[in-house]
Each structure stands twice: as structure tokens, then as C-alpha cells.
Amino acid sequence: MAGDSYETHEYDVVVVGAGGAGLRAGIEAHDKGCKTAIICKSLLGKAHTVMAEGGIAAAMGNVWPEDNWKVHFRDTMRGGKLLNNWRMAQIHAQQAPDRVLELEEWGALFDRTDEGLILQRDFGGHRYARLAHVGDRTGLEMIRTLQQRAVSLGIDVFMECNVQHLLMNDGRVSGAIGYWRESGELIVFNCKAVVLATGGSGKCWQVTSNSWEYSGDGMGMAMEVGADLIDMEKVQFHPTGMVWPPSVRGILVTEGVRGDGGTLLNSEGERFMFNYIPEFFKAETADNETEADAWYQDKKNNRRTPDLLPRDEVARAINSEVKAGRGTEHGGVYLDIANRRDADYIMRRLPSMYHQFKELADVDITKEAMEVGPTCHYIMGGVRVDADTSATAVPGLYAAGEVAGGLHGANRLGGNSLSDLLVFGRIAGESAADYALGAAAATAPAPAEVDRLTTLMLEPFTDRGGENPYAIHGDLQRTMHNLVGIIRTESEMLKAMEEIAVYKERAARVKVEGGRRFNPGWHLALDLKNLLAVAEAATLSALECKESRGGHTRDDYPDPDPRFGSVNVVTRKHNGTVSVSLEPLPEMPEELRKIVEEQV
Amino acid sequence: MAEAAVAGNGAEAKMRVWRGDASGGEFRDYTVPLEEGMVVLDVIHSIQAMHAGDLAVRWNCKAGKCGSCSAEVNGKPRLMCMTRMNTFEPGETITVAPIQTFPLVRDLVTDVSYNYEKAKTIPPFKPKPKEADGTRRMYQEDIDRVQEFHKCIECYLCQDVCHVIRDHNENKPSFAGPRFFVRVASLEMHPLDTDDRLEFLRNEAGLGFCNITKCCTEVCPEHIKITDNSIIPMKERVVTRFYDPIARLLGALGGKKS
Ligand SMILES: Cc1cc2nc3c(=O)[nH]c(=O)nc-3n(C[C@H](O)[C@H](O)[C@H](O)COP(=O)(O)OP(=O)(O)OC[C@H]3O[C@@H](n4cnc5c(N)ncnc54)[C@H](O)[C@@H]3O)c2cc1C
Ligand code: SF4
Ligand code: SF4
Ligand code: FES
Q1: A177 — phi, psi (to 5°)?
Q2: What is the pLDDT of residue A19?
């Protein structure tokens, strides 16, 4: 409780998160001469980035020399329904190739073209085969490479250390406080700058590809100290999660299956995606099976298969097929690669998918179709940052990776996250370092503030009414799944707000059993704070956004509305009250607008 | 889907789970409802939610990709998320214990910092200069064998079963373990790398302790042929370098990497 002892560490830059974004930020801050710490709540190397399968999007032009940053920029903006921060999209497309090549300098081994260069694969929404990859375990290659680099540079890593609150002094960030998972002891960091690289918040939803780590900590903490969140209603439901058996529901099936030739079928055996080509993508999408199949080999003379439309389109289409009674036995659709590619090819390109289905579902994907359906996968929204510096509205606070918003607009293209991590991780690390090198020495937090936060952290051990944190979390996930899921409507979301209010009240009465040493019940009790804050922000934003676009679909407002086509939905917390407002997007320069609008 | 009949039919999982920390503990019995398709990790999560909120366990991906959930299930080193409940006899009591080679933190969680310390000792990747045209050309056939090693998810199950440290704690300071032999082999066989880690393997890493029992290969969930493809070739290189007089002479004359 108040007065509980804690250890203190001094750094120039503290990076919270050791996924792709955090590791890349830490490496950059270190290289710039800053005393840097990287903190993560799992063991090093286990962050979400390790699970990424399909690849890293970067217009290197190794397979299609026609590819360049402008095409990548255009695809990203169009995939995001033009709600993207144009400057972020430009920087991302321009710098991604260098960031991928840099991984090679650090030892990564991507699959190769016949010329010995990095091979690139097709993915949804990308005009050319653009994803650098290693089979279907690209994230593993990326995180190991970065992790080994960080270790070889001697950067201090605090693992299984959970950051709970940011500390402020004189209106700027001065550090962070949290606890060691192993011992339950408290720990304080005094520093000049903090980079948030904590990833997303998919654990608010019931069916998700995300792990326990995705409780939205970075978003919750940033909002608490006055940073803005944007577009929190834009949630990506990946079209292909496993649906059967129940215990694996939500686990991801990489888009690489479709990139490598797999196709979606309904229970009648129809390739239904041809019925769901939106006007916006008509000109560039094949409208018959022959052209769609020919596109894999000849992209110049054929248009892209509708199986690879952006994820929001495919997820909604699957949803409609199932609702119309054309779903599979377990409420999904079929994803078939067995009848389209030979077993050798499948085993070489998709080894971990083969393994996953074989071991978890008794399905041999070289012989039978998979059953798939939408799963909560990624949040496009997040902490608002400046495009050129990754700075938030709070001095000394930076954010990069999935925790940040803006780059992906209303919908993220596959492969654009891993590249995002590298590009903006580096920028955030660089800016934080520049800031820290010019800033005054870190100040220790006021003892009263530490006492206040310590009390909050240890409260769940006191007897306050016996609520079970697992039960509250399960209820919240069901609420978000049922009422703020893939298709939304006002009355349901208002109901969700009422339920969230109840969960907040219940969360204040949580009592955990056991002691402080590695106690997951306590950890979850503390995570509820951020889970509830993000669920509330997402629901409020979704209520405010009275239209349908990308990762936000409303039954009561089924079409895009120009009113919402050039604004961010901004959530902020002031004096304890959360408010939502619409604020204009930065205006895109004419020459970039031309690139985006150009017909192909 | 014949199994569908099982779901929701009142089937139960009977589990015996280690509870305790370094100061002591015991196996405790738990019974939870069994659902279709469950893996051991799901059952552990049910126990947490229903009976023991403080049951300590590590996990992340639930799909065999992150290597967090290693444990000994009925005495066998396994990933809990990839161990299906239907691989056991109906009604059988399943025992779940923490991995034995590392110090216990609590319940199913062990202190694996040994591995992170070993990782720090490995001489890092040191690439040769780029090609004249500024690219890095490598061909798929030249990297296939290293890509096998890069599949490692750092579950440390191979470390857990290796008798050199499992039965002899005192060997830990002088033995890196199979995971790190794989790692060193991946660097040594990397087409761009120019460093030389044979001396390191022979001395600090303690490659000589390994007597090729292949226990590590048997448990690797990524099916990496740890012994055949990494340890044995590394041993051969060490022998050639340090114990073969002609190679030694060539080494002295400046020939470096085999
Ligand atoms: C199954 C799957 C497959 C995917 N495939 C692809 C793909 O092929 N291509 C692609 O581009 N994208 C893919 N994605 C998305 C992409 O992997 C993620 O968006 C990305 O890895 C997020 O990286 P990050 O660095 O922002 O966060 P993460 O990698 O999730 O890292 C977050 C870090 O923050 C730490 N952290 C969080 N909260 C705290 C706290 N309170 N205190 C201390 N530390 C904290 C965590 O421990 C972790 O280290 C996939 C995602 C999933 C789930
Ligand atoms: S083969 Fe060598 S490294 Fe592997 S378990 Fe046996 S002794 Fe250990
Ligand atoms: S080599 Fe295999 S068993 Fe050993 S840590 Fe890696 S994945 Fe696990
Ligand atoms: S939870 Fe990731 S390997 Fe089991």
C-alpha cells in the first residue's frame, strides 16, 4: 500500500514494448547515444510481432519492377478509404524498403527470388506482390533479428515488467511506474522521454487473434496523461480466423493462403466474393474466375481476384454469406487451397498453417478446405501522433506501432503493420532521443504521487466485495462481441455503454486471491482498467461516427457519409471526463491526391 | 466431425497441477468441464477462471508460435497450447508440472533467465560487404538449412530435456545448451557472416559436453533436427579445426571459415 518500497532506475529514454516497434525504437535511441531501456510484460521475443505470418509490405520492386513507393502509397490510402494521415502513409511507403533491407544487414533471411533477392508475395489490397516474407513465419524472423540486435548492442531489457502509469512533471513525461510480474514488487523509471510501443487492444473482444497482452495499456495510459486517441471505432476484423473447434475460435489464418492461390467458397461451393465487389474497387478487380485465376501469374493483363479485396470488404462478405444461410456447419465459410495448389507448394509456402490445422483441428489443408470466419485482429485507431516525429500531444511522450493511430485510416492492408513498426519505430526512437538529449535531467516523482499510484495497484488485494476479474473480463468481451462487433447499431451500442458502466463499477470491487508473486489474477485485475477504457473509447467513437467505412460498419448508417470522410474521431480525457469530437484530417497536397485518384 | 458429440455433454477434464514455489508445493487436483477441441492450456485457463485465479502460467499465441507455454504434461516436455486433450484416454487424470531444468518461480512458471544470459554471450552476426551493385544476393538453396534453424520459437524444451544441465546444475555456467548450438550454427552457416565462433563453441559454449543423445531433437516442437543438422556439423568443424593437424596449419596460414 502507500509507503510500499520500490526500486528506481534512471534512463534517458524508456521504451514500453518489445515488439517490432519497441525494439526498433530502442535500437535507434541507443544508437543516438541515449541510455535506453526496453520494457515488456512477457518474456523477450514473445510479443505479438512473433505471431505475424504473411509478411512485411515494402515496394522494393524485386518481383514487379513496376512497383514503387507511389503505388504502395496509393494502395495504402485507398485501402484506408482515404482516412489515413497522408503524411504517415507517404513516409511509410518511402522508407519501408530501407527498413526491410536493414533487417537483412542484421542477419534476417527472407525467402529469395531466382535472382537471389528478397522474394515478395501477393496480399490483399496491394497491387503488386509486395510482401517480403519467410514462409508464413515472417514475424518470428523479424522479432528475432531485432531482439538479437538489441541484445548485441547491450540495451537493457526489463522483461515480465508491467508498466501501469506514466509519471508527469511540469506538464511533461518524467517516467513510469509498474510492477515485476515475477515478484510483484514495484518499480519506478525516471526518464526524459517515453516511447509507447505497447501494441493493440483486441482482448476487449471475445473472438480474437490477439493474446492476453492486448489490453490496450498504451492507449489507456496515454489518455490518462492527456494524449489524444483517434479513430478508436476502426477495428479490423480479419476475415479468416479459425472457427472450429471452439477452443481455437479466432486464431488467425494468414491472408497468405489467399495470396498464394486459396479461394473462399460458401456452402454451395460458390466463389461468392465475385458478388461483393464494391464500386470503389470495380476498375481494378476481376469480375470472373478465369481472369481472377490468371492474375496470379500475369498481373499486367488481368485484374486482381476479389478474394484479395481489402479485409473489411471480405469480412463483411463472409458475415453476409453466413447470415444468408450459406455458411458452413460451424458458422464460417470455406477457404480452399487443397484443390488449387499441389501439396508440395502448400507445405513450402504455408508450413505453419498446415501444422496449425493439423494439430488443432485435425484438418489436412493439402487435402480439405479450412473453415474460417471473421476474428478481431487489429485496431487502426490509437494514440494520435505527429507524422514526422511520432510525438504525441504530451511533451516527452512518443508512440509507434499498433498503439499509434493514423497510418492505416479506416482499414489496414495486410503486411502494412510490420513495415509500420520498423518505419515509425525508428522515427519514434530517433525523436525521443533528440528530445531527451536536449532535455533537463530526469526528475524523481513526488512521493505523494507514487503513494497514490501504489495504492491503486495494490487495491485488488484488499477486501472490496469479491468480484472475480476473469468473470468481468469475460463479460466485457461478450458485450463488445455482441454489441460493438463487426456490424453495429445505435441501440446496441447504447446498451454496451450501460454494461461497460456496470463492469467499471464491478471492477472497483475486485478481490484477488493469492499473493503478489506471479499472480495472473492480480495482473488481469489491473489490466481491466485499460480494457474498460479502450472499450469505452471504441464504443463512444463508434456511436459518434454515423456512417460505414472500413473497419466500422453501422446497420443504421450503412453508407459512407462525406461528413465523416475528412475527419478523425478524437477521444480525450479531461478532468476525469471522456469526450469525443470530430476534427479535420490534415489536407493532402495536390500531387499526392493525383496519385491516389489515378485510375489504373 | 464425430467428436461433436462430446461437446457440452458433461465431459470433464481431471487435472493434477503443480502448485507452489521454491519454498515448496504439491500437486493439486482440479476438475473442469471439457469442451470440444480443447488443449491443455485451455483447461489450465478454465482452472484459473473457476478455481484458482492466481494459478501462474505463461502463454501468448495459443498456436505454437511464441514458445511461452512449455510444461511437462504427464512427464513429457510439451507446449500446452499444442497438446490436445483428446490425445489422452477419456477420464485419465492429466498431470501438469513446470519444466524441471530451471528454478521454479511459481506453479507452472520457471525462471528461464539462464537462456537469456547465454544469448548475450553469442558473438553476433557480422556480415561481409555488399555486392558491387549494393545488393545482397543469396539463393534459396544456400539459405534453406539456416532457415530451418531460424524456426526456433525459444520454447527451451530442448534445454529442459538435455541431461547435461537437467541432471547437473553445476554444468550450467559452462554449457550453452542445444538451443544455442542451433543459434550458433545458424550464424556459422549464414552465407553472409564472416565471424568465427568455433573457439567459442569449444570453450564457453561447452559443445564437448554434448554426447549426441538426440533427446533435444525429439522434443523440438518445430521439428528442427537439432543434433543432425546443427550439433554434429559444428562438432565436425571443431574437430577439423582444433584436432586435425593439416586444418590447423591451414588455419594458421589465414584460411578461416570452413
Ligand atoms: C496472428 C497475427 C498475424 C499477423 N500477421 C501480420 C502480417 O503478416 N503482416 C503484418 O504486417 N502484420 C501482421 N499482424 C499484425 C502485427 O503483427 C501487429 O500489429 C504488430 O506485430 C504489432 O507490433 P507492435 O510492436 O506494435 O506491438 P507488439 O509486437 O504486440 O508488442 C507490444 C509490446 O508491448 C509490451 N507491452 C504492452 N503493454 C505493456 C505494459 N503495460 N507494460 C510493459 N510492456 C507492455 C508487450 O509485452 C510487447 O512486448 C499479425 C497479427 C497477428 C495477431
Ligand atoms: S544431443 Fe547433446 S544437446 Fe541434445 S540433449 Fe543430447 S546431450 Fe543435450
Ligand atoms: S530448438 Fe526447438 S526445442 Fe529448442 S528452443 Fe528452439 S524450438 Fe524449442
Ligand atoms: S502459447 Fe505460444 S507456443 Fe503456446
Answers
A1: -130, 145
A2: 98
Which residues of B are less than 8 Å from A155 in CB distance? none
* Cα of B81 from ligand 3 centre, angstroms: 15
Q: C-alpha grid cell for residue A40?
A: 515488456
Return the residue whose CA atom lies nearest to atom 3 of ligand 3: B220
The answer to whether residue B68 neighbours chain A at the CB level (below 8 Å) is yes
Alpha carbon separation from A361 to A50, A69, A243, A251, B39 (Å, rounded): 22, 40, 10, 11, 11
Q: What is the pLDDT of residues A154-195, one digit of tens each?
A: 999 999 999 999 999 999 999 999 999 999 999 999 999 999
Q: What residues of chain A, 33 to 62, have a C-beta less than 8 Å from chain B?
A: 42-48, 50-51
Tell which B residues from 198 to 257 touch A, by Cβ distance under 8 Å: none
Q: Nearest residue CA, atom 8 of ligand 2?
A: B162
CATH homologous superfamily, domain B113-250? Alpha-helical ferredoxin (1.10.1060.10)
Average pLDDT over residues A492-518: 97
Residues of chain B with pLDDT under 50: 1-7, 255-258
Instruction: Report how far ligand 3's centroid is from the alpha carbon of A589 (Å).
Output: 51
How would CATH label the architecture of B2-109? Answer: Roll (3.10)
Q: Using DSSP, state whether A361 is helix, strand or coil.
A: helix
CA distance A331 to B28: 38
- What pLDDT does residue A4 have? 81
| CB pair distance less than 8 Å for A43 and B68 | yes
| pLDDT at residue A1 in the model | 52
Cell numbers that stand for A103 in this block: 533487417
Q: What is the pLDDT of residues A396-447, one digit of tens each?
A: 999 999 999 999 999 999 999 999 999 999 999 999 999 999 999 888 999 9
Distance of CA A15 to the CA centre of its chain: 18
Summarised one tens digit per residue, pLDDT across range A247-264 is 899 999 999 899 999 999
Q: What is the mean pLDDT of residues A455-469?
A: 93
Pick the residue with more confidence: B245 or A245?
A: A245
pLDDT (average), residues A94-112: 98
Can you read off the three cell numbers belonging to residue A168?
Answer: 508527469
Burial readout B203-231 (b: 16 or more C-beta within 10 A, e: otherwise): ebbbbebbeeeebbbebbbbebbbbebbb
What ranges in A132-181 are assigned the alpha helix state H?
138-152
CA distance A221 to A195: 12
Rounded Cα gap, residues A50 and A45, in angstroms: 7
A454-463: average pLDDT: 94
- Cβ-Cβ contacts under 8 Å between A and B: the total is 166
Alpha carbon of A185: minimum distance to chain B alpha carbons (Å): 14
pLDDT at B254: 52
Instruction: Sketch the domain layout of chain B as residue ranges.
Output: 2-109, 113-250
Domains annotated for chain A, with CATH where assigned, are: 6-236+377-438 (3.50.50.60), 241-374 (3.90.700.10), 447-572 (1.20.58.100)
